[in-house]
């Protein structure tokens, strides 16, 4: 096995098991302790894993307030949103998930006649200036950290809507843990939307790959189109070919 392949496999193994000792990695990959140490140091240095006593652990993405996330990687988010907007046509009924990338869609679709369903306050406010955008809010309890509504009533309302296209967000994605989110109250909404929508698109920048958060709201293979800002590594591309997932990037 090539070094690059082994390092990727180590990362996937740790992500699947959350915390793994160096001895266990030696046993699993049949290499020396010095080799494992070098591989782990590489992954830690690149902030793909973190060191713990006697081993290594996955990086668990915490719930960061919406306002703190809004300006991070903004140019990447805008590029992703511009690509995603090419799939939206006049007359569509779309769901815009709560996220700082999905909110970047509005400037690219503001000229279209659309029905937008969303649980995100920022998206609702941005749509106010455009009378051609008909907006339905899910309502429910306000979750301030995510600028979104959640709760049982939101779920019941979403189950009655027929959505053409859903544009989803995520805290992190990985082959082993799927599409994940830091807010449990939001995750049930995301799962319902994925199940109810005719077409589903996931909008994530490259910093979200090989990260996972508290809850998984769907498998990676459930979403046929993942839009990002650069080509994912070969493991994701192979996974996509095997499971019918297209990675679109510019």
What is the CATH class of the largest domain? Alpha Beta
The CATH architecture of the largest domain is 3-Layer(aba) Sandwich
Beta-strand residue fraction: 15-25%
User: Could you say which structural class the secondary elements and strand pairing correspond to?
Assistant: alpha/beta
> pLDDT under 50 segments (min length 5)?
none
Query: Helix amount, in percent?
Result: 25-40%
Strand order of the biggest β-sheet? 6-5-4-9-12-14-15
H-E order: HEHHEEHHEHEHEEEHEEEHEEEHE
For this structure, the CATH topology of the largest domain is: Rossmann fold
Biggest β-sheet: count, sense, barrel? 7 strands, parallel
| Shape label | elongated
Number of domains: 2
Mean pLDDT: 89
* Number of helical segments with 4 or more residues: 10
Topology overview:
Layout: H1 3-17, E1 19-21, H2 22-29, H3 33-45, E2 49-52, E3 55-58, H4 66-69, H5 74-85, E4 93-96, H6 106-109, E5 114-118, H7 121-127, E6 133-137, E7 141-143, E8 148-150, H8 152-158, E9 163-168, E10 172-174, E11 178-181, H9 184-196, E12 197-203, E13 215-218, E14 225-227, H10 234-243, E15 246-248
Parallel strand pairs: 4-5, 4-9, 5-6, 9-12, 12-14, 14-15
Antiparallel strand pairs: 1-3, 2-3, 7-8, 10-11, 11-13
Helix pairs in contact: 1-3
